[in-house]
Write a structure and sequence with these properties.
This protein is of the alpha+beta class and about 70 residues long. It has a domain of about 40 residues. The chain is built from one helix and two strands. It has a two-stranded antiparallel sheet with strand order 1-2.
Length: about 70
């Protein structure tokens, strides 16, 4: 929901604020010093069932560091 709508509903007593499961400050952000690995591994042909037009969608994979290695 939009923050403005949330604030209005809270003021009117129509929305209860639920606490976050985890405080935002507890997140540990890490930025990789270099680019991660991205690969285009091929294409898949898709057909529009209405028009019969064929299109190709590219499949992309991304390899990122596993959690805990920061």
């Amino acid at each position: 929901m939009e923050p403005t709508i949330d604030r209005i509903l809270q003021r009117q007593g129509l929305l209860r604020v639920r606490p976050r499961k985890r405080p935002k400050e507890s997140y540990q952000w890490w930025e990789r010093p270099g680019p991660m690995q991205l690969d285009v591994i091929g294409g898949v042909r898709l057909v529009n069932p209405v028009t019969g037009v064929l299109r190709e969608a590219k499949l992309v994979t991304a390899v990122d560091d596993p959690p805990g290695l920061a």
